[in-house]
Amino acid sequence: MATSHTKSRSDTPAPKGFRIRRDLPVGRHPLLAAFPDLDKQPAALRLQPDATARAKLFDETCVQVVDQDLWMYVAPWDMPPGARREWSPVLSPGSDCIVVGRSHLVESPAIVLYMDIFHELCHVLQRHGGANLWPPGVSYVERWTEVEAYRFVVEEGRMLGVSDAFLREYLEVEWISEAEHRELLRKLEVPAK
């Protein structure tokens, strides 16, 4: 949920059948218009085993491409407390929308986009279950929602054969400190350097 930096390149390709519409214009689009057949990926079945609930998740979630230098985040329904000071999010009252920076969509490696979109879909499901994705006063690496979503994509990455070095860099986001990064690595059982 912040400005992006160049994320690690990996020799590991995204899974077969993972497609990205890198030419998608700025604006709101159905999730499957941005990532065709994403719902057919094995990770989609692991994320939501119930076929009816999975179809609803992928049919009702949208993607909003923005002309900003950022990765992805789930658009809040309401302004999170303190957000205006740190970040001015797109709001999507009552609907599930994943915001993605145009440069991230166009330039990032497919494996990074694959991991990011499933990370955000974890958050959508968490919110459906009643979770507060932005609890006030809780650091990023202490939020169970972040740890759970990262755990899901780290496991996916490992199944695809990404290296620990790639995972370390993937988890090194600019809005956390070095100490918080080490804590996140520890929680996710990714060996530090």
Give an account of the 3D structure.
The protein is an alpha+beta fold and 193 residues long. It has one domain (27-188). The protein has helices spanning 31-34, 42-47, 51-60, 83-86, 102-107, 110-128, 144-160, 164-170, 178-188, and strands at residues 27-30, 62-66, 72-74, 97-101. Strands 1-2-4-3 form a four-stranded mixed sheet. The protein is globular, with a radius of gyration of 16 Å. Residues 1-7 have low confidence and may be disordered.
- The H/E string reads EHHHEEHEHHHHH
What distance separates the N and C termini?
A: 25 Å
Helicity range: 40-55%
| Quaternary structure classification | single chain
Derived from helix and strand composition plus strand pairing, the structural class reads alpha+beta
Question: Mean of residue pLDDT?
Answer: 91
Beta-strand segment tally: 4
Beta-strand content estimate: 5-15%
Summarize the structure.
The protein has 193 residues and is an alpha+beta fold. 44% of the residues lie in helices and 9% in strands. It has helices spanning 31-34, 42-47, 51-60, 83-86, 102-107, 110-128, 144-160, 164-170, 178-188; strands at residues 27-30, 62-66, 72-74, 97-101.
What topology emerges from the helices and strands here?
Layout: E1 27-30, H1 31-34, H2 42-47, H3 51-60, E2 62-66, E3 72-74, H4 83-86, E4 97-101, H5 102-107, H6 110-128, H7 144-160, H8 164-170, H9 178-188
Parallel strand pairs: 2-4
Antiparallel strand pairs: 1-2, 3-4
Helix pairs in contact: 6-7
